[in-house]
Amino acid sequence: MRVAIAGAGAVGRSIAGELLENGHEVLLVDKAPTAISVERVPLAEWLLADACEITSLDEAALQRCNVVIAATGDDKVNLVVSLLAKTEYGVPRVVARVNNPKNEWLFNEAWGVDVAVSTPRLMSALVEEAVSVGDLVRLLRFSHGDANLVELTLPEESALAGTQVGDVEWPEDTSLVTIIRGTRVLTPSREDSLEAGDELLFVAAPAREEQLEDLLSVRKEDAAG
């Protein structure tokens, strides 16, 4: 997979390193000469250019990219890069970094954004996840399909502990995509049983989040009664 990253700061370089380790082709684009640090990510391609300029994106051959990540520290730049990537080059997947949570409402399909990642929101979500069991935590918002990636740690007293995935009547417009159990990451099958302490990741419609949280948090005695 070929990935272009606009913004070669600490965030962009970190993403590039992870993607390269996973065998992907990565192009880092930045207009600041001081940001071009080839020695820090030597396996990536580098381009000194303004990612908001069509000529620069032509040079980057954005039409050959499977994913574009707008990872600069400027929300206006990230929105422009996202819009150009989607509308001018037809990039299938556009991921954009949101620096100011007040701007998060802009990062949607109208601006070409498929996934908006708000660092402050994600950090607060991870804090909530670390201290909350039984509470639904919203991690990411997907623009297409009006859906969120949400997480909930199954409480010890949940009525669903010990229940097979296929036997649960999940709310409409929700999908259990991953079970994190200790150090293991499981792709759930119908035969897998849920265990107390499992971190469950769902893609869910916002309107179903409360229903999903209620389902997973029902206590055994309440279910029995």
UniProtKB/TrEMBL annotation:
Keywords: Ion transport, NAD, Potassium, Potassium transport, Transport. PROSITE patterns: RCK_C (PS51202), RCK_N (PS51201). It comes from the Bacteria. The keyword Transport applies. GO terms for molecular function: potassium ion transmembrane transporter activity. One of its GO terms (cellular component) is plasma membrane. Coiled coil: none annotated. Residues 137-218 form the RCK C-terminal domain. This is Trk system potassium uptake protein TrkA.
